[in-house]
Every structure is written in C-alpha cells, then in structure tokens.
C-alpha cells in the first residue's frame, strides 16, 4: 500500500501544473525573474486595468495555474475563482488619502521591494522542490532593485526642485519616492474627465500623461507656458521590454529628458 501511495504522489507531482499567472505585465516581469519561467499575463497590451475584465478563455487558462499574483489595492475589480490568488498590496506601504487608495505602487522600485519578498515566499511554498533556485533568484532580484533604486536616486538628485503635474496618479509613487515636487494631479479617477476647475492655473516644469490622453489636450495645457509634457508607459506595453529594470529605466529616461 505504501508503494502505491508513493507512486501516486510521484505521478501527481509530475503532471501537476507548473503554470504561474500575474495580472499585469510589469508584475509578470518580476514574477518571471524570480520563478525562472514564462508567466501568464492576464491584461492584454494597450488595455487599461481600470476598465478590463478577463475573457472566458483567459479565465480557463488562468485556472490551470498554481497561483495568480495580483497588484490588489482595488486595481483588479474582478476575481477569478478556482485559483490561489495572492494580493501583493498587503505587503506594501500604500498611499492613502481622503479614502482613496493608490494601487500603482509597482511603478516605484523602492515601494515594490516587499512584494518581491512575498512573491519568493509564495513560489517556494508552492514549488518546494525548487526552493533553492527560487530563493537565489529572489535574492538577486532584490539586489537588482536596490541597485536600481540607488541609480535613480542618484540621477534624480539634481532634478528634485523640478515641479511635475500628473494627469493621473499612476506615477505618484515614483515621483514621491524620488523626491520630486508634485504640483498637482488633474484627475484622481481615470473614468472621469478632468474638472474645468482642475485645469486652471496649471504651472510646472513637466506634465506627465498616460498614452490614452490625446496629445491635443497636452498641447492645450502647455501652450504659452514654460512647461513640457511627456507620455509614460505604466504597463510595459512595449513588446521589446523584457525586464522590470528595463521597464523602469525607459520611463525614467523620458522623465530626465523632459526635465533637463
């Protein structure tokens, strides 16, 4: 009987799914670096997580995974049943103001470090046979995040007196954590157009927008002012971006160019 039981355990482990999923690409990049294998990403390219619901085919694919990592903090308003889901926001210090919780912490290398530790722990608990390799990769990713944080902090130091206006609070974590002055946020809710009152007397060195916002809007805000505008990519939509470091540095390069 013991031999039969052992045989069944071995067979089960061989055929058990090794798939892992994450809700958005920047998170998938981090999980992938720690896990060492490709990760299923739920959100398709050029889609907003604020207005997206997964298709039945995607739900079916994700339920075959051993675990689903999500940003949490209200970003994913939908839920997929039948799969272990880990809300990483519970390990992160979130920006909370006037009842509003900002879920965009993945855009700050400083802020997301505790989530990386949580990812490693969860993966080791699910794949104990791969504990050593996952632990090594998790430690390496944490070191890379610390190096990235140091690099950005150093290069941002001369720009700290610059003032930025955010169209949407996606990059609030990044600009706060690296000492920039946020002169205003035009709209806190991505589903609502900006209020006329929020468009009056806007003045800063840089206006930061997300890709869906029309460029005509950006030009109208900056017209007649000594204010530039840039578009940042909060969701790593560029298919050439293969790592979290590359994703953050690509955006930081645009910020530096806009402020210099």
In round numbers, the mean pLDDT is 91
Strand content: 5-15%
> What order do the strands of the largest sheet run in, or round the barrel if closed?
2-1-3-4
**What's the name of the CATH homologous superfamily of the largest domain?**
Nitrogenase molybdenum iron protein domain
Helix content: 40-55%
Radius of gyration: 21 Å
Give a written overview of the molecule.
- Helix content is 41%, strand content 13%.
- With 260 residues, it is an alpha/beta fold.
- The strands form three sheets. A four-stranded parallel β-sheet has the order 2-1-3-4, with helices on one face.
- Helix 4 (109-126) packs antiparallel against helix 5.
Features:
10 strands; 8 helices; four-stranded parallel sheet; Rossmann fold; alpha/beta; disordered N terminus; 260 residues; 13% strand; 2 domains
Please render the helix and strand layout as text.
Elements: H1 2-15, E1 20-22, H2 25-35, E2 40-41, H3 56-62, E3 67-70, E4 85-87, E5 95-97, E6 100-102, H4 109-126, H5 131-156, E7 163-166, H6 172-177, E8 181-185, E9 206-209, H7 215-222, E10 228-231, H8 244-259
Parallel strand pairs: 1-2, 1-3, 3-4, 7-8, 7-9, 9-10
Antiparallel strand pairs: 5-6
């Amino acid at each position: 009987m013991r031999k039969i039981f052992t045989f069944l355990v071995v067979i089960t482990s061989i055929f058990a799914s090794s798939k892992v999923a994450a809700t958005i690409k920047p998170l998938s990049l981090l999980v992938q670096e720690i896990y060492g294998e490709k990760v299923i990403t739920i959100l398709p390219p050029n889609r907003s997580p604020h207005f997206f619901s997964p298709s039945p085919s995607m739900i079916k694919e994700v339920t075959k995974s051993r675990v689903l990592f999500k940003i949490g903090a209200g970003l994913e308003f939908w839920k997929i049943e039948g799969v272990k889901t880990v809300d990483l926001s519970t390990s992160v210090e979130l920006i909370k103001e006037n009842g509003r919780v900002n879920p965009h912490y993945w855009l700050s290398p400083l802020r997301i470090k505790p989530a990386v530790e949580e990812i490693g722990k969860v993966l080791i608990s699910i794949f104990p046979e791969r504990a050593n390799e996952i632990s090594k990769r998790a430690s390496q990713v944490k070191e890379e995040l610390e190096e990235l944080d140091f690099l950005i902090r150093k290069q941002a130091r001369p720009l700290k007196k610059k003032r930025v206006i955010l169209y949407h609070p996606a990059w609030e974590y990044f600009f706060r954590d690296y000492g920039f002055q946020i002169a205003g946020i035009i709209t806190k809710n991505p589903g609502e157009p900006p209020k006329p009152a929020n468009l009056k007397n806007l003045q800063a060195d840089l206006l930061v927008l997300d890709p869906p916002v029309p460029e005509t809007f950006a030009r109208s805000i900056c017209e007649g002012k000594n204010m530039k505008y840039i578009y940042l990519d909060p969701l790593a939509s560029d298919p050439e971006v293969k790592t979290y470091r590359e994703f953050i540095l690509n955006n930081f390069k645009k910020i530096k160019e806009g402020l210099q």
